Amino acid sequence: MSHAWTFVCASDALLPGEMKSVFDEVTGTPIVVFNLDGDLYALEDQCTHEEFELSAGEFNTSEGSIECVLHGARFDVRDGQALCAPAYSPAPKFPVKREHDAVWTRDDRD
Q1: Is pLDDT of 78 > 70?
Q2: Coil/strand/helix, residue 12
Q3: Cα separation of 66 and 82, whole Å?
Q4: What is the per-residue pLDDT for 110?
Q5: pLDDT mean over 65-91
Q6: Where do the Rieske domain residues begin and end (predicted)?
Q7: How many whole angstroms separate alpha carbon 50 and alpha carbon 57?
Q8: Do residues 48 and 89 lie in contact, with contact meaning Cβ atoms separated by under 8 Å?
Q9: What's the distance, CA 72 to chain centroid?
Q10: Average of pLDDT values for 70-80?
Q11: DSSP state of 92
Q12: Engineered SS bond to 42: which of 5, 14, 16, 96, CB 3.0-4.6 Å?
């Protein structure tokens, strides 16, 4: 588990409807951070169906979901739940915070 927070971007560089990808250097985990109507959410940047980055997909702000471009699996950005086949397992969700005019996240898994 990483206790070190990873810098994502300046707070004003992640506007509602946008997403940013980062890499947790401590755990080697790719993370994607979403701004959904001003609230921030972070998921592992990997589809649970087939190892492919979610950030390449479309962020649907009206549904609050991200769609994997590979096979169309969709995940709720708020909690990582798989919304349709071919994905059945949720995408891991990570903490995200605003601090010192910046956005931060970390892989908090044991």
Answers
A1: yes
A2: helix
A3: 10
A4: 86
A5: 97
A6: 6-105
A7: 14
A8: yes
A9: 17
A10: 97
A11: P
A12: 96
Token digits of residue 64: 């609050």
pLDDT higher than 80, residue 14: yes
User: For 29-49, how does the pLDDT look when each residue is reduced to its tens digit (9 = 90+)?
Assistant: 999 999 999 999 999 999 999
Residue with tokens 């990873």: 6
How is residue 4 annotated by DSSP? S
User: Can you say whether residue 10 is alpha, beta or left, with left for phi > 0 and alpha for psi between -120 and 50 degrees?
Assistant: beta
In the numeric block, the tokens 């951070």 are attached to 33
Question: Tokens 């601090």 label which residue?
Answer: 99
pTM for the model: 0.96
In this structure, the dihedral spanned by the alpha carbons of residues 67, 73, 88 and 20, taken in order and rounded to 10 degrees, is: -30
Rounded mean pLDDT, 8-19: 98
Spell out the CATH class of 6-105.
mainly beta
Task: Provide DSSP, 21-72.
Answer: EEEETTTTEEEEEEEETTEEEEEESS-SSSS--GGGSEEETTTTEEE-TTT-
